[in-house]
Amino acid sequence: MSQSDVKTITVVGSGLIGRSWAMVFVSGGYAVKIYDNQPGQAAKAVAEIRKQLNELEEAHMIRGELTSTQQLALLSSYDDLEQALEGAFFVQECVFEQLDVKQGVFQDVERLVGDDVILSSSTSYLMPSSVFSKVHNKSRCLISHPVNPPYYVKLVELVPHPETAAGVMSTTHAVMTKVGQAPVCLKKEIDGFALNRVQAAIIAESWRLVQDGVVSVKDIDLVMSEGLGMRYAFIGPMETMHLNAPEGLEDYMKRYSGGLSRVLTSFGPVPDFCGEGAKKICNEMSELIPSDQKHLTARKERRDQLLMGLSKLKKDHEDAS
Ligand code: NAD
Predict the structure, then answer these.
(1) CA diameter of the chain
(2) Which residues line ligand 1 (CB under 6 A)?
(3) Low-confidence spans in the chain with pLDDT less than 50
(4) How far apart are CA 214 and CA 48, in angstroms?
């Protein structure tokens, strides 16, 4: 590929998610210009990415067709937003999860780029209609919500603003697919998007079961890690039901919808996650994994190692099929 064929993406904000996006985009052959408003921060991010890419290459876990040296050559850091945006066709914002900060960033970016540049936000919980309320041309705006760490967990939720053009959704879908992520398109905005809504439902019922003395913290986590999670890494709840009755989903509903509805109507109210009950649950968790940095860091490293292994297993399955 010649230098002029390489398209440029600007990543705004070089924290945890900005660095991850930069690694994902260069793995797919895009030039990535990374900017942070803290002077020197973007350069530090590039140094950190260099270290990580070299380690990933040694572990044979680097993504994409390019070597770490080729991927690093695609990456550059900026303390100046205008320079960082020059030549970009796509901007991925990854700044603090604060509405006013994000709105300010998109106002600045819109002043500096052409009308056809796609403006994408990494926000976890803010609605597109709020994040982009101060942008004039909202048709080129969307949220591309990643899952941490995006290098191993490939899902990205594409959430449109009510005015987002269909072409912007499909171009972003193509970009995400090209870099090896797994994009899903929401048809309209909703608080929490899809992933965090499903996660909230799981957290709420897990919390209630522990709070009501039905099960321990340790055992509810085992319900996921040794039970539901085993299949959910490969097939979702819809396919699970489809496969769990001899004649598929309709048959499953004939057999089990009564029980399902009865259980659903027995769910308690939304927990408030505070007070004595919450303290007891937090203490129970801390007895299993102490809340100091040493223990938490060790468990995070273990989680990332396990996710790396799982993502390799999923890739081997895809390659074989
Ligand atoms: P972070 O605190 O690690 O990084 C934020 C970075 O943005 C910092 O380097 C900061 O200097 C920079 N920044 C702040 N204001 C800026 C500005 N005006 N211009 C340029 N840079 C600016 O945060 P993070 O965890 O990387 O999260 C970034 C976004 O990604 C948030 O919206 C968050 O909700 C979303 N997200 C986070 C996760 C996660 O698990 N951490 C997962 C999915 C989505």
Answers:
(1) 63
(2) 12-18, 36-38, 41, 94-97, 101, 105, 122-124, 145-146, 148
(3) none
(4) 45
